[in-house]
Each structure stands twice: as structure tokens, then as C-alpha cells.
Amino acid sequence: MATIPMMKTETASAGLDLPPDARVGIIAGGGSLPVEVAAGAAGQGYPPFIVLMEGEADRLSELCRYEHETLALEAIGSLVPLLKRHRITHLVLAGEIKRRPRLTHLRPSLSLLAVIPIVVMALARGDDGLLKVVARGLEARGIKVMGAHEIVPKLVAAEGVLTKAGPQKSDWRDIEAGFAAAKAIGALDIGQAAIAVGGRVIALEGIEGTAGLLDRAKLLRGHGRIAGKTRGVLIKCAKPGQELRADLPSMGPQTVEAAHAAGLAGIAVEAGRSLILEGPATLSRANELGLFIVGLAAAERGHG
User: Which residues belong to CATH 3.40.50.20 in the chain?
Assistant: First the structure.
């Protein structure tokens, strides 16, 4: 498929408040988020330059229609020179990167020598610490880091019930318990999600992510540890002090499918601080399966 040159078109939307000569780059991991951000930037007159993270980006047919290069995690020391070479002024970190670069496999370069202290410090700080340090390091080198939600505001979860079905009274007890638990593990930089059933938390998100969390809940129900017809809720929220420009909690059609397979009644996300990917497909699938999706306003996060 033909590559779209990275040039700003003449019909830039006023929705994206960037200088006329801005060049947007996207570090693309897995999932649909990089695709939606790329389309959002291009639609507003800023066709992006895509840095495909080798072995992580998985929507290649949709991403490779833009100007792009592939970068291995172990070549991370080449990132800043790569961005500078393509005159990137604004950068979005989008999509899932499942593994960390192995320090012993990092490819030597002069630019790597400058970033090794940053990378070592970041790896020691955990996921959110890593993102914060990387963002600061890039901005210190003249590249402004933006959040996906700044490029595509429509991805941000709205307040209220977003589906035909809504939470029952028992679901609100689950939401309250799960929200408190998700915030607690978020404060420890462990995860962003919890599952509550019958008013108590039965599973917390760990390094395996939300998909693994839902798989565990499905196994618990299959083993009879959760009563067969008991409702339950998946709750996702931002970590306290979350780096909002990267790794916001997100959900999509696969999350809905997995929640249904785990026997849950619905999903609650933090409004304004969570992303709903492939929105129309996600909400449509939830409606088909009878699940609710609710965006929690500040006043509802302590709903009893």
C-alpha cells in the first residue's frame, strides 16, 4: 500500500492546536490505539510518522500506510536521532508494549550512552515511572509528548451509562469495592483494574494485564469459586499520579468479550481518565451481550 508522506495538509482542523509546521510522531505498540491516533492526527491535517516497535505493533496494514520506520526495543538509543531526523516536534506513545528492553542486548551508539542512565532509572521505577522518565527525557530534547486523548478526544470515556443496560444496585456495591481496590494497587504501580463480585474484590490486575485478569476470573467461575449466576463487575481506573500522556486505562471489544466469558455483568471505567477504543464496535458488542458499560463521574466513585 502506498505510503502517505508526512506533510501537513492545508485543511488542518482547529481541534488540534498545533503550530502549522508541527510534525506528529507516534511510537506504536500493539492494539488499535495507534491506528486510531494515526487516523485522528491525519484527519486533522497532520499525517503522522509512525515508529513501529518491532514485535509489538500488530496492526501493520493500517499503520504502514503512513510514513514509518521499524525500531527494535534494544535499539531504543536510536529513538531520539530517528525522531530528529524526521523533524518530529510532537510525539504520542500509543499501544501496548509487552516486554522491556534487555539492558545486556542494547545496541551501542553514542546516543545510547546519553540515555542509558535514564533507561536504567526508569526500569527501576516500574511502569508509570518508566513512562514519566521517558516523557521527561524526550521533552528535554525538544520533543513535546502528547496524550492519545489530546489527538482523539472522542476516545475518552464519557460520564454515565453508555449502553442499553445499566448497573443494578448490587453492581454499584461491586463498583465501589472494585474502584477502591484498583486505586490501591494503582498507588503501588501494580495495575489499573480489579474485579468485584458480591460486594467483594475477587481478583486484581497484575503484570499480565486486563486480559489475564479476566482469564483468571473465568477460571475461578469455571472451578466453582464464583457462584455460577453471581453478577460481577470489571473496574478500570487511572493510577493516582498517573502519567496521563501514556498508558491511560483502556478497553475495547476484546475486553467486552472477555468480561462476558468471565460471567460479569458489566464494566465500569473512570470517566475522563480512561479510553474506550473502537467505540462504536465496543458499545455495540456490549449491547448485543447485555453487558453494561458505565463511566464513573467523580461523585459516583463512592456510590453505595
Answer: 24-152
Torsion over CA of 277, 281, 282 and 287, rounded to 10 degrees?
A: 160
The fold for domain 156-300 equals Cytidine Deaminase; domain 2 (3.40.140)
What's residue 77's pLDDT? 72
Q: What is the dihedral of CA 116, 117, 120, 122, to 10 degrees?
A: -110
Query: pLDDT tens digits for 143-172?
Result: 999 999 999 999 999 999 999 999 999 999
**What is the pTM (predicted TM-score) of this model?**
0.82
Cell of 11: 485543511
Helical spans, DSSP H, in 223-278: 253-261
Average pLDDT over the chain, rounded to whole? 83
Give the integer Cα–Cα distance in Å for 284 and 257: 11
Rounded to the nearest angstrom, the gap between the alpha carbon of residue 102 and the centroid of all alpha carbons in its chain is 23
Residue 40 pLDDT level (bands cut at 50, 70, 90): very high
Q: Hey, CA dihedral for 287, 234, 238, 145, is it positive or negative?
A: negative
DSSP labels, 37-50: HHHHHHHTT-PPEE
Q: Where in the chain is the domain with CATH 3.40.140.80?
A: 156-300
- Sign of the dihedral through C-alpha 223, 265, 152, 64: positive
User: 466513585: which residue's cell?
Assistant: 301
Q: What is the CATH number of domain 24-152?
A: 3.40.50.20
Residues in the chain: 304
Cα–Cα distance measured from residue 66 to residue 41, given in angstroms and rounded to the nearest whole number: 11
Alpha-carbon gap, residue 283 to 290, rounded angstroms? 10
Are 99 and 123 in contact by the 8 Å Cβ rule? The answer is no
